[in-house]
Design goal:
The protein has 313 residues and is of the alpha/beta class. It has a single domain (24-312), classed as TIM Barrel (Alpha-Beta Barrel). Helices cover 41% and strands 13% of the residues. The chain has helices at residues 3-8, 30-41, 47-50, 56-61, 95-106, 126-139, 159-164, 181-184, 190-203, 221-233, 260-272, 290-312, and strands at 45-46, 67-69, 73-74, 84-85, 110-115, 144-148, 169-171, 208-215, 238-243, 277-280. An 8-stranded mixed beta sheet has the order 1-2-5-6-7-8-9-10, sandwiched between helices. Strands 3-4 form a two-stranded parallel ribbon. Helix 5 packs across helix 6. The chain is globular.
């Protein structure tokens, strides 16, 4: 049986032993417990928990959590993702207000909002992103907002209101190289995801765009660099690259643990290709150090604009 058939049938594959650079400490801090209490009290889900993120201890200790809106059940079944798949419930009309309350109570300068795929909804869930952004702007006007969206299944009119709501960062992850989409991300289409980010720039060039890749799934280095070129053609500003970590034995196996020096090489290549900001380490995830990275991204744009102005003189 091929690996593709095995993954699709949900059969268990052997684990590769994690190398020393990938191991993290278990969360134990009081701030971690306080963040978890607040999320439960406000009935909010987090991708930190649902996706079994290895950085949850560090992020929650610093009172940073990536809020997962539109429930905790996804309509798709990607081979890398630990979020439950099934039939989602009704959209929670109180969720946007609860997100705004969490932002205020945690005193966040930068917040990241993501969601499950909601292919069952006419707009793919885009309207809930808009409502969350509006609540955050109303109650925490100084907080910068980063959204990590699904592809909205190419539903007509879904993307435009989200762009009009003007998040500071619009993130949509390509996740892997095109060759691996049929097994790793079977419900999505590579070029549609790429076009989504390109359209954001068409509609509002001032919004930072961001996308991420996982490595260790069997991709070749050449393919990663080709994806970088595609991203730059779509005018993506910020690239994240991290090591894929297998959530359970029924998910896609790790083909290889990429050593830190290869991440450094990928970062150098990405910067040479023109990304304003690059984060490439084994433990990099889309929202890891997002607030710090947003400030660096903003400074990079200011420097770029200054250089362009000097060149015209």
């Amino acid at each position: 049986m091929s690996k593709i058939q095995s993954i699709r049938r949900g059969e268990e594959q052997p684990y590769l032993r994690k190398p020393p650079w990938i191991r993290v400490k278990a969360p134990t801090s009081p701030a971690f417990a306080e963040t978890r209490r607040l999320m439960r009290e406000l009935k909010l889900n987090t991708v930190c928990e649902e996706a079994a993120c290895p950085n949850i201890g560090e992020c929650w200790a610093n009172k940073h959590a990536t809020v997962l809106i539109l429930g905790d059940i996804c309509t798709r079944a990607c081979a890398f993702c630990n979020i439950k798949t099934g039939r989602p419930g009704a959209v929670d009309v109180e969720e946007p207000a609860h997100v705004a309350t969490a932002c205020q109570e945690m005193g966040l300068a930068h917040i990241v909002i993501t969601s499950v795929d909601r292919d069952d909804l006419p707009d793919g869930g885009a309207g809930q992103f808009v409502r969350v952004i509006e609540e955050l702007r109303a109650h925490s006007p100084s907080t910068t907002i980063e959204i990590l969206t699904p592809d909205f299944r190419n539903k007509e009119g879904a993307l435009e209101p989200v762009v009009v709501a003007k998040p500071d960062v619009f993130n949509h992850n390509l996740e892997t190289v095109p060759r691996l989409y049929p097994t790793i991300r079977p419900g999505a289409r590579y070029y549609h995801s790429l076009k989504l980010l390109d359209r954001v720039k068409d509609m509002d060039p001032s919004i930072f765009t961001k996308s991420g890749l996982m490595v260790g799934l069997g991709e070749e280095r050449r393919e990663v660099y080709e994806v970088m070129d595609d991203m730059r053609s779509a005018r993506i500003d910020f690239l994240t690259i991290g090591q894929y970590l297998r959530p359970t034995p029924r998910h896609a196996p790790v083909e290889r643990y990429v050593p830190p020096e290869e991440f450094e090489e990928m970062e150098r290549m990405a910067r040479a290709k023109g990304f304003l900001m690059v984060s490439a380490t084994p433990l990099t995830r889309s929202s890891y150090h997002a607030g710090r990275d947003f400030e660096a991204l903003r400074r990079a744009r200011e420097a770029q604009l200054a250089d362009q102005a000097s060149a015209k003189i």
